[in-house]
Amino acid sequence: MFKPPLNSSKGDFLPYNVDGCSEQGLQDVESAPQEEEPTIEDAIDIEAAETVDRPPSINEGIRPSKIYEPFSFPVLALLAPASIFGVLARLGLVALATYDGESIFPLAYVQALGCFIMGFGLRLKEQFGQFYGPLYTALTTGFCGSLTTFSSWQFDVFSSWINISDFRRAGLRDFIDGLGKTVFTLTLSLGSLLFGYSIASMLVPHIPAPRFLRRRYRYSLSVIAVLSYAAVFPAYFRLPKDFRPQATAALLFAYPGTLTRYTLSVLLNQRLKAFPLGTFTANSLGTALLGAFHVLQSLHHPLSPNTCAILQGLIDGYCGCLTTVSTFAAETRDLKSWKAWRYVLLSWMMGQGLLLLIMGSSLWAGPVSKEITCR
């Protein structure tokens, strides 16, 4: 069901003589008695799942023009504008796809586009390494990770379970609506990821070998990246107040959310074999925070307008960028079947369980209402 990692320089599967092992040596290993150790194929899957967000490195069989450490300044700096553009694209797509009589829920467009671009970037990882490695992390972790959102997906599913909009329908239809959003998002995300990867594979033979970006351009990109995030602060205070809950508040928290997710991914994804603990932690934490912020937005005693704008900015910006479906889909694709299903089920169940604990208990206890009172 899930496609194994591909060779970054060719369109075929990775050979088994990796990590300096000869084919004969591997045959000897295969003929030895089986022990409770990961197979070579498992090791390839695990390594691919661990390095989805990281800059290109030699450990992945890629020869980048220059090796960048995960926490080097160029990598961290370029995450800022990528996060900003990812949030703006998400908010714009959701607004464009929200209308009376819509046949597809708005977040479907967001998840599909983000996963498509993610698949495109994964296939061109070697080319990014030859040109400028931090751009790869900016595209995948920054833009795609901020464009797609795991927490809002979980909130949409939970809202269907409890019929938060009070539609006139039976409880079975509430279940069907939530189940449909779950299955449709998973299949659409994985399909879009593979489609983007396939399109990039067809284009790779026609892409000329890129030359490493010159030093003055690299420095200029880092400076522009820092200035772009600095510009969101005057934008919040100088632009009309009506823009704050719509966009400018979200821009304030976009980069901190992406940086938190990236840090968790780098530090924790290698802790457990065949289970991306960092992404799982980021998605779970962001979903819990979104539930808590929504509870505050729905208090019977409304909060001040500035507080409401900050809460909406935290939901769209911090939680939206802290959680991701594109990286989640890429890691699911790189894991073996049963490990992938375990990862998907545990992530989904954790998200729904946290929202049930935080939002469900608040709604049924009475201190909040289903409708948002914070304006």
Notable characteristics:
68% helix; cell membrane; mainly alpha; disordered N terminus; single chain; CrcB-like protein-domain-containing protein
Short account of what is shown:
With 375 residues, this protein is mainly α. The chain has 15 helices and no strands.
Give a quick account of the main beta sheet: strands, pairing sense, barrel closure.
Answer: none
Number of helices: 15
Cα-atom Rg, whole angstroms?
22 Å
Summarize model confidence as the mean pLDDT: 86
Describe the structure.
Helix content is 68%, strand content 0%. The protein has helices at residues 23-31, 40-50, 73-97, 107-123, 125-131, 133-147, 150-161, 171-203, 215-230, 232-238, 244-268, 277-297, 305-322, 326-334, 337-365. It has 375 residues and is mainly alpha-helical. It is globular and about 60 Å long. The chain has one domain (64-365). Belongs to the fluoride channel Fluc/FEX (TC 1.A.43) family. GO terms for molecular function: fluoride transmembrane transporter activity. It catalyses: fluoride(in) = fluoride(out). The chain crosses the membrane at residues 73-97, 103-122, 134-153, 183-205, 217-237, 249-268, 275-296, 343-365.
